[in-house]
Amino acid sequence: MTATETTSIPDVLKTAESWRSAGRSVALATVVETWGSAPRPVGSHLVIDAEGNFEGSVSGGCVEGAVVSEAIDVIETGKPTTLEFGVADETAWRVGLSCGGRIRVYVEPVT
Predict the structure, then answer these.
(1) CB neighbours of 94 closer than 8 A, spacing ≥ 6?
(2) 14: helix, strand or coil
(3) CA 53 to CA 80: how far, in whole Å?
(4) Model-level pTM?
(5) What's the Cα-to-Cα distance from 8 to each of 12, 30, 90, 105, rounded to whole Å?
(6) Tens-digit pLDDT profile for residues 16-73
């Protein structure tokens, strides 16, 4: 499954509920803060299962891979985390926001 740019917040939450009902372990990533010209607004969501399947978007494709990797760890440990991405930190060489903005993403297990 790939990220769907047009998935609305209710659709992503519906996907999370559907996956949980099917017995899949799920995490929810939510944009909680932005600076500059971040590609997704606060409140944007990405739902991820333990296999790395995902639906939604937190950055228009810029950092989804890194968020999915962290979300799998969150599912395994049950411990939420906050991720920060931008061109001015150490992650700039691994992932970056093409627009030059910064985002903070909260990732939590869905129980």
Answers:
(1) 66
(2) helix
(3) 18
(4) 0.80
(5) 6, 13, 31, 17
(6) 999 999 999 999 999 999 887 777 889 999 999 999 999 999 987 778 999 999 999 9
Report the alpha-carbon distance of residue 102 to residue 96 in Å, rounded: 9
> What is the C-alpha to C-alpha distance for residues 74 and 7, in angstroms, rounded to an integer?
23
Residue 87 pLDDT class (50, 70, 90 cuts) = low
How many whole angstroms separate alpha carbon 59 and alpha carbon 50? 20
* Amino acid, res. 105: V
Amino acid at 33: E
Neighbours of 9 (CB within 10 A): 12
Chain Cα centroid distance, residue 79: 15
Which DSSP string corresponds to 17-63? HHHHHTT--EEEEEEEEEESS-SS-TT-EEEEETTS-EEE-SSTTSS
